[in-house]
Amino acid sequence: MLLSALPLSLLVLVEANAQSSSTIASASASLSPSGILLSGTNSAGSSIPNFGGDLLPTGSDVSYISSPTTSTQIGSTLILASTFAAANGSVLSGGTSTRSSSTSTRISLLQGTRGASTTTSSSKNISNSTASSTSTSAAPINTQACNNYPEFCSRSYSNITFVAAHNSPFVNPNNAAANQQLPVLNQLNDGIRMLQGQTHYNSTTNTISYCHTSCDLLNAGTAQEYFTNITSWVQAHPYDVVTLLIGNSDFIGVGNYTAPLEASGLSQYAYIPSQVPMRISSWPTLSSMILTHKRVVIFMDYNANQTEVPYILDEFSQMWETPFSPTNSSFPCSQQRPPGIDREQAEQRMYTANHNLNTEISLAGTSLLVPTTPLINETNAVNGTGSLGLMANNCAGTSLCPRVFLLSKSTRKLTRNSLITAAWPRPPNFLLVDFYNDGSYPGSVFEVAAQHNNVTYDRACCGLVSMAVASESGLLPLSLLIGVVGFAGVLLM
């Protein structure tokens, strides 16, 4: 697979554990497009022109892969026009290479820190992180971020907490069924890394469309249009891994989704797992997914068939969820879907914390669940009753408060809930939220994820909201709560 379209900084990928220096005696400068991979030592003070500084750690034994259009001498290392090669110093076709043998064949992004490196976790804070260890050997510094953090490059996909946009496509202004205020490109730019949405077969257009409960209520367009937008972002951000969770609301055959995924170009980035199902320890690192260009993970909730379509993964054999469409602001971290699995099975899978508060309204015999927008600043907050931070802490057993006090709607008195214990041995993999851009402050949902990932969140958030605020109270007019005249018997999820 050609890498020439990527920024050159991605194409310098350093092996942090190279065992010995490899001296290049000679190499052909006219290689075929299939390429060559060489190893060497970067001399102190050297840098690659036009890269904005030292991309290789000085004085370290490294191996790397590169795809520049011209050859460049860096210390004792010669970078040649090349693409991906299978192992150090191997010429895939064309050209010749003579070098001393190297004991290192593993290729990865730069990882770790120079000098002694220690990663620890507090007994009161269970977080996603690299394995705790202490090393006195020199390790190169990774300055290239994966999913906005250099620390994530070495972590497995299943060892990171991602913020997920609930019903990502549903941003229609003045529609009570909307769950987001900013469109998908803004979501990705701000840091959302899982995009969830509900699809339906649209008989009017004979297409698969993103519709909320019914295409008559909220129609956000075809799946192909949505996938195409994601593809454009993925192509422009080669260091990011994105997850797509497709809600197959009409339970149609999975084969119906291949055409829009392929036409959009997204399928070329789709990750195909090494086994079915994937367990928590089976997932690759982000750097591995980036190197192989398989950095879009596609799940489907119902009717996935990985024998028929290997890159559309069955959600519930590899992930479970807490109660969905919750109306309980205590947000219990109990396993709900899929039913019938025991705790041991659950601990072998990733999991999603559904943290989108809903309000049930009844009008003319119609039951509707709509996002509780007046409380969104509390729901998406870092801490406090009903907050995302509190739920994530409770899931991971890191809450500092042993009991939760709830406000009874009937008596308006505080009632004490049962004792909170460590629900699960690790934080949620995905935090599914409405209106991610709102919270106790802009970006509060990303701060919650950062705390459980043991990293520092310091990014600007969020994109400008185009949807007008309906009222100071945050409540939409009653006429907008119905969405479509005559639509009855609806339960929004």
Q: What do you see in this structure?
A:
With 493 residues, the chain is α/β, with parallel strands linked by helices. The chain has two domains: 1-107, no CATH class; 151-470, TIM Barrel. Helices cover 14% and strands 18% of the residues. Strands 9, 10, 11, 12, 13, 14, 15, 16, 17 and 22 form a ten-stranded mixed beta sheet that branches. The chain has a two-stranded antiparallel ribbon with strand order 1-6. Strands 2-3 form a two-stranded antiparallel sheet. A hairpin with a 4-residue loop joins strand 10 and strand 11 (207-211). Helix 2 (223-236) runs parallel beside helix 3 and helix 7 packs parallel to helix 8 (444-453). The longest helix is centred in the middle third of the chain and has 14 residues, at 223-236.
Q: How many DSSP helices?
A: 9
Please mark out the parts with pLDDT under 50 across 5 or more consecutive residues, or reply none: 1-125, 131-136, 399-420, 466-493
Strand content: 15-25%
What is the fold named in CATH at topology level of the largest domain? TIM Barrel
CATH architecture of the largest domain: Alpha-Beta Barrel
CATH class type of the largest domain: Alpha Beta
- Helicity, in percent? 10-25%
Mean pLDDT: 71
Give the class from helix and strand content and strand pairing: alpha/beta
What is the terminal-to-terminal distance? 40 Å
Number of domains: 2
Gyration radius from CA atoms, angstroms: 25 Å
Name the CATH homologous superfamily of the largest domain: Phosphatidylinositol (PI) phosphodiesterase
Biggest sheet statistics: 10 strands, mixed
- The rough form would be described as globular
